[in-house]
Design brief:
Length: 86
């Protein structure tokens, strides 16, 4: 019985979760756990950057305002320069 339980638990690590597109930021925000790690995120075109308190706040912002900011680095956005020429 113990072997079957251990085998069943090991199957969880074999499965791989995939992110399906388009990303549903509202669903991600509702299940996200805040960790207070500041992230720097940019818009898809790279012309706009924002710092968020953590990744969950970024998901909530994307959900509320219909934006698509994605994490670039896990630190505050220090430079105001865009990633690309806009």
């Amino acid at each position: 019985m113990l072997c079957i339980l251990l085998f069943a638990l090991s199957l969880v690590s074999w499965s791989q979760q995939h992110l399906s597109y388009p990303i549903n930021f509202c669903k991600m925000a509702s299940t996200c756990i805040h960790d207070s790690r500041v992230v720097c995120a940019s818009s898809p075109d790279g012309c706009s950057r924002r710092s968020f308190m953590d990744q969950c706040d970024m998901y909530e912002y994307n959900c509320d305002y219909g934006t698509q900011y994605m994490t670039k680095v896990t630190s505050p956005c220090n430079s105001g320069r865009p990633d690309y020429l806009c």
